[in-house]
Design goal:
Elements: H1 3-6, E1 26-34, H2 60-83, E2 89-92, H3 96-99, H4 101-109, E3 113-116, H5 130-145, E4 151-152, H6 163-169, E5 174-175, E6 185-189, E7 192-196, H7 205-211, H8 218-233, E8 240-245, H9 256-267, E9 272-274, H10 277-288
Parallel strand pairs: 1-2, 1-8, 1-9, 2-3, 4-5, 5-7
Antiparallel strand pairs: 6-7
């Protein structure tokens, strides 16, 4: 099915307003993306173009740029979120638990939610067997954490027309790839309804910093502007603010203080909570009853 066949159009003003638990008016959904880039393949992102304009393999500069996040940047994330006692969702390539067990163990020990994000980083369109990779990814995470993920984010938010059906078949209950709303919604699949949570490509450090090449402080300005508007709207209906970050981008020394400043700003406001995706899913299902 094409996207418009999975769910009818829905204007937010036509829906009954959902309510958060008493005392809350805004939920923040932090998503940290952890990936495995295989040096045998073209790099998933490039910060340094090849001098000749032609990419070669192995691409050591861009591979090691990503590797900095796993060696250094992610530890700044762990400290920042732990200081604010924030629930965090981890969009994780399943191979991270095998290639970077030290990082994966730290996230598990902090009780971060593990969300499926493929096995290694690369477009889902290129997989020879999408169903098998989805199951392998979820099974690998379940074996490591003792809990099968209920959420999924496609690598690079990639999906084919059949991906929602395959995810629902595998037991996934929510996805983040459909960035079309401020509230959760449902789409049809061949195996029941699948919930879409309001992930983001606007408050996301890849488009912002690597594609649009903004200065580091733009993350803070955009996050605060997003927060202020949703916080005001949250007085009359539940709102969810998602931001998505990667340790090799937002975890570097010249950017980390802007993430920390936003966390400080948000926690100074009453009625704000940091929830992971499964928490949001549980609330939404109860609020819809």
């Amino acid at each position: 099915m094409k996207p418009r066949e999975r769910a009818p159009y829905s204007a937010i003003v036509d829906r009954p307003p959902l309510k958060l638990p008493a005392g809350l008016r805004l939920v923040i959904w932090p998503v940290v993306n952890l990936e495995v880039w295989e040096i045998e393949n073209p790099m998933a992102r490039q910060v340094l173009p090849a001098p000749t304009g032609v990419a070669f393999i192995p691409d050591l500069p861009n591979w090691s740029w990503h590797e900095y996040g796993m060696r250094v940047g992610v530890w700044r994330f762990f400290e920042a979120f732990e200081r604010h006692k924030a629930e965090v969702t981890l969009a994780i390539n399943a191979n991270v638990v095998e290639t970077y067990p030290r990082v994966a163990s730290a996230a598990r020990d902090l009780h971060w939610e593990f969300m499926g994000h493929g096995y290694v980083q690369g477009p889902i369109h290129k997989l020879p067997d999408q169903r098998a990779t989805i199951h392998k990814s979820l099974d690998t995470i379940a074996q490591f954490t003792g809990k099968r993920p209920v959420g999924w984010l496609g690598p690079g938010l990639t999906q084919t027309y059949e991906t929602p059906d395959l995810l629902a078949e595998a037991g996934v209950q929510y996805i983040g790839d459909w960035v079309w709303d401020d509230e959760p919604s449902e789409i049809d699949t061949a195996h029941g309804r699948l919930v879409t949570l309001p992930y983001t490509v606007e408050l996301n450090d890849i488009p912002m910093m690597i594609v649009q090449h903004h200065h580091a402080d733009v993350f803070l300005k955009r996050a605060v502007d997003q927060f202020d508007r949703l916080y005001a709207e949250g007085a009359s209906r539940a709102k969810i603010l998602c931001f998505a970050i990667h340790p090799y981008i937002s975890g570097v020394p010249h950017r980390i203080k802007y993430l920390e400043a936003f966390l400080d700003y948000a926690t100074r406001h009453a009625g704000v909570a940091f929830w992971h995706g499964a928490h949001i899913l549980d609330w939404w299902r109860s609020a819809k009853r």
